[in-house]
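seq:
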Amino acid sequence: MKDLKVSVIISTYNKTDWLEKVLWGYTHQEYKNFELVIADDGSGPETKELLDQFANSTDLDIVHVWHEDRGFQKSQILNKAIVATSTEYLIFSDGDCIPRKDFVKVHVDKAEKGYFLSGGYFKLPMSTSKLVSKEDIISQKVFDKEWLYNNGLEKTYKTMKLTASGFKETFLNNVTPTKATWNGHNASGWKEDLVYINGFNEEMQYGGQDRELGERLFNYGIKSKQIRYSAICVHLDHKRGYKTPESMNKNKAIRKHTRTKNVIKTPHGINKL
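struct:
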């Protein structure tokens, strides 16, 4: 998909220290033909100030989509961001995921009609997350396992995700037991497919709304491709204040209904059906 202009949708909420690190990652992408759409779930003025600063001092093409803070409304702001995009292919990630320099390029290179792409992330502990600097991102040291080990990461086989390339990368994508689901921190698909299924289900709170969207894409006939070892981002640690048993149980029931009833279009999405 050479020269395809794409939109990268980043969700955020009142975490400018993490978002700033993420934005530095997008200023140094190998593939430049993208707009950055910030899906802001009600942050205070500090987020807008940060985005204005980057828009004025870098080459990033930033679109800021914001609504008032009404608690966790990620699905709603993501739907508004989808509508605000100006391209036909959309990449989704979060404001706590720093992309490797080839992140956008991998999604563009592997984009294919009839498919969505399913990536993952590499989790950093809080101590390492705080240490990551602008220079570490620009130099790509934050993706170097030795640098990570020297800065608080415990030794783990999972660093294969950061080092795999060529045949090994392809092999690991093919043999990983992790299913190629829609993962909000690292997934991409065609805008026309996402609009057809009516986007995210706005009834859903924290936990599973991304997977449910992917399940409706499957019901629609869209297949998925695993790029877990190809499109790399590191995840900065944070608390999850919106994760409650009530929201998780509600979301599980919605997902079960989606699967058993073969739901394609949510009535609680971009358009209220």
